[in-house]
């Protein structure tokens, strides 16, 4: 939101300069931390093999009855969402003729949704149950994005504000609960490698989605590409809907399922 104001007041190059200075200030602040930290010991020749750890993390994550639908959902969602957001600002300026200040205001209000989402994650999980809550927030996030390609006329700003509010709420609310669940159902000795494997899979979709979005925006137009991204992100929730997550209200509900899977995985 502040970026839009800075672009309007100072012009874009100076706004970028202010952003760069903020990173320098952050680095200087971090350099003033004087706490001594122990260097981790390097594993010797008998230490865990890097490739084996990666393979084990991927196998565990992609075979897990609860983690697999989560990772598939986020990967597919990341692909389509980044198709949309790669050209969102260009769409807002060229198609909707919005000023930098208005765009900044829209994103600022969206950040309020993020704050509310983070603060209410535990309440939503208690009210709906962990699994149904994840499905509900994921569905809401996708539906909110559908407002972006239909925004037109005098409803442009209100629709984009609602879309960003809903999306911001979803992102924080969903991931606070999802990561908490994943950590609760993953054996301690696998947390690091499963986290790395999961992040590799889902984050690899980000540049791919942005690349596809930019290409489609060039060849078929901005609004159609935004629509494809929004529809794809909305349908990405299907793996969650078809998974055992629907019946998981509390972590205790997953204990038997998780225990059975862990025993089977350990024997392989």
By CATH reckoning, the class would read: Mainly Alpha
CATH homologous superfamily classification: MFS general substrate transporter like domains
Counted by DSSP, the helix tally is 15
**What order do the helices and strands follow?**
HHHHHHHHHHHHHHH
Named CATH architecture: Up-down Bundle
Biggest sheet, in brief?
none
Low-confidence stretches: none
Summarize the structure in words.
With 268 residues, this protein is mainly alpha-helical. The chain contains 15 helices and no strands. The model has no long low-confidence stretch (mean pLDDT 87). The longest helix is centred in the middle third of the chain and has 30 residues, at 156-185. Helix 3 (50-63) packs across helix 11. It has one domain (54-267): Growth Hormone, Chain: A, CATH 1.20.1250.
Quick overview:
Helix content is 77%, strand content 0%. With 268 residues, the protein is an all-alpha fold.
Question: What is the secondary structure topology, with strand pairs?
Answer:
Layout: H1 2-10, H2 12-31, H3 50-63, H4 67-85, H5 88-95, H6 100-119, H7 121-128, H8 130-145, H9 147-150, H10 156-185, H11 191-203, H12 205-219, H13 222-235, H14 238-241, H15 255-267
Helix pairs in contact: 1-2, 1-6, 3-11, 4-11, 4-12, 4-13, 6-10, 7-8, 7-10, 8-10, 8-13, 12-13
